[in-house]
Amino acid sequence: MTEPRGNRCSLGEALIYRIARTIEDGILAFHGFGSPLVQLALHVAKRTHAPNLVLVAGATYAVNPMPPFLAPTSNDWVMDRDAECQLDIEELFDLAAAGRLERMFLSGLQIDRWGNLNTTRLGVDALKLKLPGGGGGCNLACDARHLTLWTAAHRAVSDGRGARRFRLVERCDFITSSGHRAADGRTRKGMGLVGNGPDWLITELGVFDFDAAGHARLREVFPDTDTELVRANTAFEFPISEPVATTPLPPAAVCELIRSLDPLRIHERELRTEDRLRSFSGPDFRPERHA
Amino acid sequence: MNAAVYTQADKRTDLETLIGHIRPGDCLAIGGGLSSREPMAALRALIRAGTGDLELIGSAHGIDVDLLCGAGLVAASAESYVGFEQDFGMAPNYRRACESGTVAIRDSCCYTLVQQLRAAIAGLPFLPIRSVKGSGFLDLHPEFKTLECPYTGEELVLVPALRPDVAILHAHYGDAHGNLHIAGPPVADRLFARAARKVIATVEQIVSTEELQRLGVTVPYFYVTAVAEVAYGAHPTACYPFYGYDRPHTAHYHACASAGADRFEAEYLQRFVYGCPDHAAYLEAIGGSATLERLASWKDGPDAWMKLYD
């Protein structure tokens, strides 16, 4: 656990804040399971700019819960304490199918330029790695009105055999959840997918939106990253929204809120060790006095 | 085929007889989800009975599916998630079984499963969904068909009715007649109970029918084939309010499973499954009353509750 001092915000807090900013007030949104950054983003949104958010918690299907702390397992009574009411699995997915789920949050071990995700398997013909699976992501990638994609592992790592393993890939080995186009170029609409698809892809290196063609487009970087770093860690070429902005960082009050919501710092488990050490000066940062 | 209704006055039985309702090759729907209310004692008894060649269906699962994979009882998995979330990550035995080819991978997704169960519940051959188009699931499931909707003209995916042979559930309370009360999120348990040919359940406590009516019936008795009282029957998953999730035990489980199939057998299965002739022996093996008191300490407030996750 790393606790940033003073008014500095950690990378995890910055990611939570940035995901929270994609959440509109007055909508119904759902976080799945195994996604502490998103769980916290919804709670931050609800307690700041989106008080009328209908927050549906993953795994418990609790509506507007007030967890005393974040647990590392989503289907725990911790996570549905003081909920206003409870849904069940069919009611949440029916809401989505009927177009009432405005925003969903999805991630993947592979993410391509169109926002297709793979959480099922690595290896196209021969299975190299069985992933846990996508839960309801396949259904909700179609049915939710909008999608926020995220990953805290954009940075390509060595596979131990001299090659680099990318998270943002040229092509997914399996499409668990559909983005804007199939690999053969067919559009969502052409495939009969009703929702509008991903409008954000937030990573620990930068923030993408999606252009009119449905292609991921770099829009923001962090204070310690730049366009070249993002490019070097992405397997596909991408357009850039010039000028690339610096990602807005959370005010100190939001960092305090996140620390109170997640005293066990469960969200840092989504981050790699080196990323847990990254921190930034928030917008209301006051330099410490040095002797 | 229509499922039966079960009307016996007294469905109480022991764990071994309960498990005898599962036959080799059955399609099994396991209740609960992730770290909560998995019918773990019943699954351990199933492993001791050696009933294998099972097909598993479900939404979000973890140690239950992983344990059955580690014991070699699973032939196919149509789960939509099997893992330990941010707590321990991937499910080692499940991965190994899938990657070695001993478990056929038929991954599904939550709403697809819901619609397939609801078709079975309503006695329909299929239900339509809009999603799945454009995904790899169509290749994994050649039984899914597409149809142009005669009302709107849009192309829909038809998913066939899915009727599990057995739903295996762990509930808080049951009565002799087979009514079940589940406190907190039911996950997919009610769907499983209505769709399956047989429902077998362990419960923390058997109470009178009057008391069960007062608590509220989650699953009506006529779906239920047999019920066994097994206190702490969900351990190491949680069955709040009785006990929280046993994270240290799960950490040990995951470490054993990650160390390979042989070590998992020697260090986990022998010690906690094959080596425990019954559930009482298991409760001693996990640390007896000291462990059970620790797992009940979540009630002492958020600080005590947080300590369970250290």
Describe what you observe in this structure.
Chain A is an alpha/beta fold and 291 residues long. Chain A contains eight helices and 18 strands. Chain A has an eight-stranded mixed beta sheet, sandwiched between helices. Chain A is globular. With 310 residues, chain B is an alpha/beta fold. Chain B has a single domain (15-107, 163-296), classed as Glutaconate Coenzyme A-transferase. Chain B is built from 14 helices and twelve strands. Chain B has helices at residues 15-19, 40-49, 63-70, 85-88, 92-100, 110-122, 137-140, 189-195, 209-215, 247-258, 261-274, 279-285, 288-296, 302-307; strands at 27-30, 54-61, 74-84, 89-90, 104-105, 126-129, 145-148, 155-160, 166-174, 180-181, 198-206, 224-229. Chain B is globular. The model of chain B has no long low-confidence stretch (mean pLDDT 97). The chains are: A alpha/beta (291), B alpha/beta (310).
Helix content of chain B: 25-40%
Total individual domains of chain A: 2
Question: If helices are DSSP runs of H or I spanning 4 or more residues, what is the number of helices of chain A?
Answer: 8
The largest sheet of chain B is: 9 strands, mixed
Distance between the termini of chain A: 29 Å
Low-confidence stretches of chain A: none
Q: Could you give me the name of the CATH homologous superfamily of chain B?
A: Glutaconate Coenzyme A-transferase
Structural class of chain A: alpha/beta
Q: Rough shape of chain B?
A: globular
CATH architecture heading of chain B: 3-Layer(aba) Sandwich
Q: If you compute it from the alpha carbons, what radius of gyration of chain A comes out, rounded to the nearest whole angstrom?
A: 19 Å
